[in-house]
């Protein structure tokens, strides 16, 4: 009780100022997010027992549940442990509970006694020529049917024995492996428990460090009031200002783009006009020559060609007077420095944090002083907490680990012995199986059904001898094996029914938790709790990985909510910033002169007649002299006057040369000019809407700066203060939740218990039970194996005496004895049947 009271006083006397201090650490969910570090969880070494020791569990459990159908004898064990009195009545009660095991033990003893006795009687009987010992076999009509039936039965029984033998080998290997690794496994389990106990002080220290980190975070936030609060004010102004600045930047880009396109237009025209003028002069000269030729007196049918002369001209002057007005408006807009207006506004926007820092310097210094005072009060809290009690628990675990390590060589040796014994027993059973399989194989391979039993082959006879060898070996070792089965059955079966099965369904823990059974284990008394806390509830909560606070009902000892009540500290912090006043100067985003230039730019762009320009370009590009040249060539072919013919051909060639010049020199420039004009047309169509959008957004932003900026500053300043307080409240909630739900989660403790149960029951007991069950299985099937092997052996062994077929309808041809061969008479054999 003294330690508990001391722990209560010291813990909360330190935790209270600790949590008060962390109140200021709030800036986690506001401009700066503070990520809470996860509590350090103990590292758990995984199990190295990956073998499947429970491969025979269903059938073994079913057998043991049949042998012991009674429920767990909790009341009987409580009376035995408390009284330690084994009276006749108590022994009778125990034997009554173990009646199923006693029946199985009686059967085993009967097997142990009768098997060697029957074997001895059987051997003597065969020595006297009985029990199949006489080497004579009656040749009946169903002899082959009997042999096949005995063969099939022997084969099936041998397969069943082999299956049991395989299970013996596997379970023996698993048992040895479990024993071999049990020291390492137990050491790892204890190490996991120690790691869990060591993690609890570290988790408490993490909560303390988190409060210190929170204070430092808030101090850092207060140092950075300018950037943080300034950013909040910027966020409040960003909605109206950003669209305005962006629209100004956008119209500036449009002005620059329009200027670039106009420059490109002028450059193209400078290249194009001289070429077009030369082209016009050449085309006019050719046209005049053609006209002269067509009016010659000797020119035949030339008057019909005169209308084509109208096609020999270039339309369009490529003069665009509107572009000069647009060029002048663009130059004035550029000189107005529209982009500079946007940059000026952004400079004002970016200067807000520096202005806020200057305005809040005194309030920040006062708050930092209060935080430093609070931090000084909570230093050194964890060193006063009585956590040494955890070390007193860890010390015995360390001693137990050393003891396990000392016994490891002996355990390893016993593992090797158990493996050797298991292998020997498995190999002896395998010897019987091999004898049976050799008998089945050699017997059927060497037997000729038509042979007389006295004339069977050596291979067939060898098969029968193998059967009898297996029978003899079965009689010799089966009773010894049954003795092993009986001992392991008593140990392993009772361990499963009295330890493993109740351990799995928590009946064993309920037995340990019985009041008065183990006086030292009374958690409610030790912790001074009003709640009846028992080991079953603790184990169940730990299996759910609940915290120590929840598992041990520590809320009955500590009032956590009252310890975390720090409202007076939040009020002081709030009042420190409540009278804060921040003044931010105003600006004019767009001057009237700039607005006038933008209006002029918009009106000039909208009045630009791009359709007329495109029409002039199309007129020039639509000139086609090739058709007229074709007509002249056709007309020349109809002329009789060679001079006129040559003139027409020459003039057609001149037209083609001019058309080639148009295609190669004029058309690329016309296409470039057309592209530039179309780009200008697209931009000009959007300029009016863009300028109107600029005026609309700038007007709204200017109204905010003129009439709402003070309210925004006040609102965001209040948000910044509330942010600091909210950070603190968030930490308090985290601390409360961490202490009540996360600190000391006892899942590793329950895992250690469960892992111990797996080691003892799932691996060791299950593999041991599988071994004796498999061995007992083999022993049971040795009985029919002996019977059918003896029966089948006679069908393969070579008989000394022959017998005739018992068939009255079988007719034999008589013959004189003198006709017998001498060797048959000497050996006393019957002649072969015909």
From TrEMBL:
- Please list every transmembrane segment annotated in the UniProt record, as residue ranges: 99-129, 150-171, 417-444, 465-491, 770-790
Origin organism is Cyprinus carpio
Q: Which gene carries the instructions for this protein?
A: prom2
Please give the Pfam families that the UniProt record associates with this protein: Prominin
The molecular function terms of the Gene Ontology recorded here are: cholesterol binding
- The positions making up the signal sequence are 1-26
Compartments where found: Cell projection, Microvillus membrane
The record, for PANTHER family, names:
PROMININ PROM PROTEIN, PROMININ-1-A-LIKE
Q: Name one GO cellular component term.
A: microvillus membrane
Q: Does the keyword Repeat apply?
A: no
Stated name of the protein: Prominin-2
Q: Does the keyword Chloroplast apply?
A: no
Q: Which UniProt keywords apply?
A: Glycoprotein, Membrane, Signal, Transmembrane, Transmembrane helix
Membrane topology term reads:
Multi-pass membrane protein
What does the sequence similarity comment in the record state about its family? Belongs to the prominin family.
- Domain of life, per UniProt, equals Eukaryota
